[in-house]
């Protein structure tokens, strides 16, 4: 069987991209990154990709008159690469309905909260303000509504009394790096499928996301 191909979209530091690169290198993940695409030239993740000899491409959204035109250009860039999975790894653009529909069931995202809690930005601050005792991250297939769509796996971490946004974000990020390659692997191994628009794992409806806690699946 040929390796699953990925295209990764980034806007920033790319630590999740790095976790995917490392998982491939360590043979934890049997996949190949065809390209890393950024909407900004300043994304540090581009350097990570170059260091790993992965093709990079910058497509500056400010050059386009509308979200739809930008997304159409991205599709033109991505489709010839025939990715099995499109991976959003800190890609800070809202995607158009047409883009999401085009990649239905092969577009995933990682979001720093235990969805459906705290969609959008500033998730760590909100968790602290709400005196949450646990927080985390979710990997989900992307559907039209922001930070929605079937969740594959969540990582849970405790919120400590002493936490600042920075310490909490760092604790969550460390877990993101573990669950993103895991979820990508399940997709690449074709263990995740959709039946009547319902997410299945190994041909069984996934009633609840997988849960990663204290460094293992529980
Ligand atoms: C992560 O917190 C991720 O959950 C969110 O954006 C951040 C990306 O970080 N979607 P990095 O660029 O992978 O370091």
Major beta sheet summary = 9 strands, mixed
Shape, principal axes of CA atoms: globular
- Which architecture per CATH? 3-Layer(aba) Sandwich
**What is the element string, with H for helices and E for strands?**
EHEHEHEHEHEEHEEEEE
The structural class is alpha/beta
Which topology does CATH recognise?
Answer: Rossmann fold
Figure out the total of helices.
Answer: 6
If you had to describe this structure to a student in words, what would you say it looks like?
This protein has one domain (4-217): 3-Layer(aba) Sandwich (Rossmann fold), CATH 3.40.50. 31% of the residues lie in helices and 27% in strands. The chain has six helices and twelve strands. The protein has helices spanning 15-25, 45-51, 67-78, 97-102, 123-129, 165-188, and strands at 4-10, 31-38, 56-58, 85-88, 107-111, 134-141, 151-158, 192-195, 198-201, 204-205, 210-213, 216-217. It binds 5-O-phosphono-beta-D-ribofuranosylamine. Residues 12-16, 45, 89-90, 110-112, 137, 173, 176 line the site of 5-O-phosphono-beta-D-ribofuranosylamine.
Keywords:
Rossmann fold; 3-stranded antiparallel β-sheet; 6 helices; single chain; alpha/beta; 9-stranded mixed β-sheet; binds 5-O-phosphono-beta-D-ribofuranosylamine; 218 residues; 31% helix
Topology:
Elements: E1 4-10, H1 15-25, E2 31-38, H2 45-51, E3 56-58, H3 67-78, E4 85-88, H4 97-102, E5 107-111, H5 123-129, E6 134-141, E7 151-158, H6 165-188, E8 192-195, E9 198-201, E10 204-205, E11 210-213, E12 216-217
Parallel strand pairs: 1-2, 1-4, 2-3, 4-5, 7-11
Antiparallel strand pairs: 5-6, 6-7, 8-9, 9-10, 11-12
Helix pairs in contact: 1-6
Bound molecules: 5-O-phosphono-beta-D-ribofuranosylamine.
């Amino acid at each position: 069987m040929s390796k699953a191909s990925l295209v990764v979209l980034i806007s920033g530091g790319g630590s999740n991209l790095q976790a995917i690169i490392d998982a491939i290198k360590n043979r934890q993940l049997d996949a190949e990154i065809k390209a890393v695409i950024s909407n900004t030239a300043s994304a540090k993740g581009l350097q990570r990709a170059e260091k790993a000899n992965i093709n990079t491409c910058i497509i500056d959204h400010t050059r386009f008159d509308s979200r739809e035109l930008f997304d159409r250009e991205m599709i033109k860039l991505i489709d010839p690469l025939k990715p099995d999975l499109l991976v959003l790894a800190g890609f800070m653009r809202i995607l158009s309905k047409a883009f999401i529909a085009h990649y239905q069931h092969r577009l995933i995202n990682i979001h720093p909260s235990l969805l459906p809690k705290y969609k959008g930005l500033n998730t760590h601050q909100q968790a602290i303000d709400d005196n949450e005792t646990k927080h985390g991250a979710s990997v989900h297939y992307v559907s039209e509504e922001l930070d929605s769509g079937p969740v594959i796996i969540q990582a849970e971490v405790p919120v400590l009394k002493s936490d600042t946004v920075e310490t909490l974000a760092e604790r969550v990020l460390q877990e993101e790096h573990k669950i993103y390659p895991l979820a990508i692997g399940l997709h690449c191994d074709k263990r995740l499928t959709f039946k009547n628009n319902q997410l299945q794992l190994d041909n069984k409806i996934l009633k609840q996301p997988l849960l990663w806690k204290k460094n293992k699946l529980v």
